[in-house]
Amino acid sequence: MIFFINSVMQKNKSGIEFAQLRRIELFNDHQVDYRLVVRDWDPKLHIATREAGIDDDHLINMFEYFQNAQKVEEKPKHIEDLDFGVPETHLQEEASRYLVFSKTNQLIARANFTGEDKQIVSTELFDGFNNLYRVDNYDTRGFRTLSQWYSPDNKVDTEVWLNTDGLPAVEKFYKPGNDGKLQTTGWRLTDRTNGKIYMFDTIEELTVRFLDDLNDEFWSKKHPNIYVIDRGHVADWGILHLKRAAYSVNYLHNAHASAQDPMAEIVNNNYEFTLNALDGYDAIAASTHKQNHDVEMRYHPTAKLFTIPVGVVSDKLLKTKRIPMKERIFGKMVVFARIAPEKQLDQLAEAIALVHKQVPEVTLDLYGYADSTNNYEARRKVQKVIVDNDLGDVIHLKGYTNKIDEVENQAMLYGLTSDMEGFNLGIMEATAHGLVSVTYDVNYGPNEIVEDGVNGTIVPYGDVEAFANATIKILKDPQLTQKYSTEAYNSAERYSEENVWQGWEALMSDADKVWPTKIAAMNYQA
Amino acid sequence: MYYFISENVFGLNSGTEHSQARRTRMFNDQGKSAYYVSRNYNRFLYRDLETEGLEHRFSLNMYDYFQGTLNVKRRKQNIRLMDEVPLDEYQVESINPNYSIIKHAGRPVGRLNVLPGTVGLTMSVESRDIRGNIVARENWDWRGFKSSCDYFHPDGTVASRTYYNFAGEPVIEETWMRIGKRVAPSMRKLINYEGHDYRFNSENELFKFFLDELFKKDKDAIVISDRHTLDNVVADIQNVKAKWGYLHGVHTNNAKSPVNGQVLEVYKTLLEQRPADFTGVLVATEEQRDDIRLHFPMANVRVAPDTAISGTHRHKKGDRPKIIFVGRLGADKRPDHALVVMSNVVKQVPNAVLELHGYAPTKQAREELDKRVDQLGLKDNVVFGDYRSQKDLATVYRDADVILQTSNVESFGMNLVEAMSYGVPVVTYNIKYGTKVLVQDGVNGYVVPDKGIQAMADRVVKLLTDEKDWSQKSKAALKKASEFTFDKMIGDWQKALK
After folding, report:
1. What would be one Pfam family of this protein (chain B) (predicted)?
2. Is B135 in contact with A196 (Cβ distance < 8 A)?
3. CA gap A437, A456 in Å, rounded
4. For residue A53, which of A22, A75, A76 has the smallest C-alpha distance?
5. Does residue B133 contact residue B111 with C-beta atoms inside 8 Å?
6. Distance in angstroms (rounded) separating the CA atoms of residues A106 and B457
7. What is the pLDDT of residue A130?
8. In the prediction, which pLDDT does A127 show?
9. What is the phi-psi region of residue A424: left when phi exceeds 0, alpha when psi lies from -120 to 50, beta otherwise?
């Protein structure tokens, strides 16, 4: 089995989740089985995964696994389903909760709900002496999933994840440290198959146990279980401590070193452990040849390097009728990105301000959610450029859209001025839609997806003026523009389903190839 | 059916529990269905019932009832054979006979505690965190099943307890939270009891619910409250045929002259505050009945036997002259008087021995008695035989020559009846209330004035040295005891409860 390991899969996704979803489509299309593994507890998980098109059979959440609650009879809870053990209660309804009172008007519980049918999310339970003693959390599928017990000082001191029979499956304990403050001091697992009880110091240790269980459950002498770690902190340490052999892959979703220097001394903190323990893994996967090359040069790993782009251009898109440049809105540049500091979209706006002086028809549409960091600093910086240059009619903050085809089929250009990337799905999508890209020379992705002078232009990192000049040059030369666009369409083939799938096949076949040796080594050790 | 209501059956029971247990046995022996009903959570209940000599089918304990474990048979669960301990991952190391440690990579992750008085049977299983805190504890029943599980507050005190049925499903939840300034059990909730949850603010509220459940199924219930801390609960019970309170002690704080004393706090519910909620009051003697009537002219007070015996037994002479003291070693029983009496007896009968059987209420009380033995030079003449179960007391009584009673007051005197059933004559102070009924001076023993230590010693010496006198008194003691057999006492009970 191949496992794609993440901590979360929420409604609001970041690049890692999008990458996993694309990959899942690819595996579905090729009818190769896989499991999306989500480590963290999330009572709304199944809503998010179903919306994202992941069926329950392909999903394993660690808590649900231990709770034996991967598949449950779905009976969302409503207020009338709850029994507070007190006769003749009456309710007072507020915006998102009911207050439950006894006949003497003593508060018995607060029942928090969501949605139009007022599905119960959690209940805050009080004893007869007005103490909040427990909060029960309900899964969206209806069962009580987590009970949080409170101390007399109103702090959670024990958390209990229950199985569907209402018995403890996983417990988390909080005890005072030397400073008197509560800290997590242990996790306890009651094995769902045999009732044996295990103590763990940290969630990382518990995660190892979980990965071991998966390894046992899906064990095969023919094929190793392949663990693809997409979010490092979940299992980068744990995967090195499995009981039995497996094939481990660390997926680099971002540049491994800071800024533009692949040899920079301080590396990306998300990958610091992975890179220092590199040979503990069987393989490293990255989206670009360039990053693999840099990793190779810097670390000389024994772990194998695979280039498997996170982005996939669908066959359907590749076969769509190409739209010539002259049928597009002249001068329209678009970008799909979160309005976030690392995207440096204010620099893109500044470049457009320069272009506008020579090509007044230029426009820039920014599609994406605004990042709230520092009170929406990134968006405020873009807005300042607009105001300072009086570009209210030229640069538009359009917000998030999923109508990529519609937007990109009308635009000419795609711009990118980020400071660091792991791939950048946006610029790949743009290329596949025949847009001509202008990008900073930025690792990793943009400077590989865009081939300078072939399907667009790469300008030195941080050089706003060069960016503007390259854009002007393209806009002033219709023939060049069309040539770049045709090459953009052509170059998308690199990210076709077939090509990306070949990357996965290479990885899986390497896993199979080394498996007999691994089993033999394991038996020898034992 | 008959229901005798109490808090518990203890490892060390007092006269109240003995009396109640004995009555339960007698009723059932005489074909009248009766239960020893108890409230407290006691994982050792079935052991304690066995010690008390009461068959568990006559016990109705509240937790046992809700846990659905009435009549569960004992299965010995060894700490080395716990299914929940993964022995391929953890190592169990025996530290001493009381506990073993569960270790992972050399670090303790739990502890297996051994049931006292057993070799390696499971009492509880603790899980421990890296700081050594107990984070969860399973409490096992003496019968070898997991009975409840505890979590703990940050200060290490119990935070919550879940009680399980035999199948391991939760049936009661209990929480410890703030009640005023204290942290104490603030809630008990029955889980899925016949399809519903029920929340209670106190253990007695739950107990009331439990009794209601029992009596719902029995329209002819006759209830006797034996532990008066529970009188308020019994008073609240409706729909039973009769409710009585049995006084196992003297009802006022004046031992010499109870009529002139003040009603003890513990009896106030029954006698002063809620007498209308009871059918009446039962006492062991006519004298106490009359005293109560003087206090409470309207009260319905009846006399019913405090104890009964299954039969009389043959006496067997021992190697040494043996004097016995049977009862709690509390100040009100004045065991120190027995020691002084003994110091006078040994002057005449140097090889005489005094055996005291009973538990001391505190360690200090016991140490003081030891000191007194030293001071009196009685080391070779006094044996603390400790608490004995009912069945073990037979060996104590069988070869005793005299039983002493030095209490300041006794509502009856179960120990005297038991001793007499083995032909053991009594020497007692003249105290209220039972003495008058049980001992006739110069017939089945001797009655001396209260605190008449020298007189008591003289009577003891006489019995030990005058074989003929002893034989007469022993015979009379047997005769007296035979008045208290089950078959006779059940008649008195029927009369009292009419």
Report:
1. Glycos_transf_1
2. no
3. 5
4. A22
5. no
6. 66
7. 97
8. 97
9. left
3-class secondary-structure state, position A445: coil
For tokens 């070779």, the residue is B380
* List of chain B residues whose C-beta atoms are within 8 Å of the C-beta of residue A196: 83-86
Residue of A133, A164, A178 best to disrupt the B interface, most CBs of B under 10 A = A133
Domain spans, chain B: 2-69+205-303, 79-202, 322-484
Q: Rounded to the nearest 5°, which phi and psi values hold at B114?
A: -95, 140
* DSSP per-residue codes, B75-127: ---BGGG-TTS-TTT-EEEEEETTEEEEEETTEEEEEEEEPTTSSSBEEEEEE
Select the residue of B109, B136, B186 nearest A127 (Cβ to Cβ). Answer: B186
pLDDT at A259: 62
Q: How far apart are CA A302 and CA B355, in angstroms?
A: 84
For B155-263, list the strands marked E by DSSP: 158-164, 170-179, 182-193, 196-200, 222-225, 242-246
Mean pLDDT of chain A: 95
- What percentage of residues in chain B have a pLDDT greater than 70? 100
As for the ipTM of the complex, it is: 0.89
Share of chain A above pLDDT 70, in %: 99
What is Dmax (Cα atoms) for chain B? 75
Q: List residues in chain B touching A: CB distance below 8 A.
A: 83-86, 89, 104, 109-110, 127-131, 133, 135-136, 149, 151-154, 159-160, 168-170, 175, 177-179, 183, 186-187, 189-190, 196-201
Average pLDDT over residues A138-147: 97
DSSP annotation of B410 reads B
Q: Which domains does chain A have, with CATH numbers?
A: 2-70+206-307 (3.40.50.2000), 79-204 (no CATH), 315-495 (3.40.50.2000)
Q: What is the pLDDT of residue B15?
A: 83
pLDDT in tens, B331-390: 999 999 999 999 999 999 999 999 999 989 999 999 999 999 999 999 999 999 877 777
Please give the distance of CA A1 from its chain centroid, rounded to a whole number.
21
Q: For domain B2-69+205-303, give the fold.
A: Rossmann fold (3.40.50)
What does the radius of gyration of chain A's CA atoms come to, in whole angstroms? 27
Distance spanning both ends of chain B, measured CA to CA: 14
Q: How far is A212 from chain B (nearest CA, A)?
A: 13
Structure-block tokens of residue B226: 């034996």
Radius of gyration of the CA atoms of chain B, in A: 25
A375: Cβ–Cβ under 8 A, 6 or more apart, which residues?
A: none
Within this chain, domains B2-69+205-303 and B322-484 share the same CATH topology: yes
Over residues B419-432, the pLDDT tens digits come to 999 999 999 999 99
Check CB contact of A81 with chain B, cutoff 8 Å. Answer: no
Contact list in B for residue A203 (CB cut-off 8 A) is none
- Residue recorded with tokens 């392909």: A58
Q: What pLDDT digit, counting tens, does each position of A258-280 carry? A: 667 888 889 989 999 999 999 99
pLDDT band at B87 (very low <50, low <70, confident <90, very high): very high
List Cβ neighbours of A329 (8 Å cut-off, separation of 6 or more).
Answer: A363, A410, A411, A412
Determine the Cα–Cα distance for residues B81 and A453; give it in Å rounded to an integer: 75
Tell me the CATH number for domain B322-484.
3.40.50.2000
Question: Taking the CB of residue A129, how many other CB atoms lie within 10 A of it?
Answer: 16
pLDDT digit string (tens) for B123-181? 999 999 999 999 999 999 999 999 999 999 999 999 999 999 999 999 999 999 999 99
HEC sequence for A285-337: EECCHHHHHHHHHHHCCCCEEEECCCCCECHHHHHCCCCCHHHCCCCEEEEEC
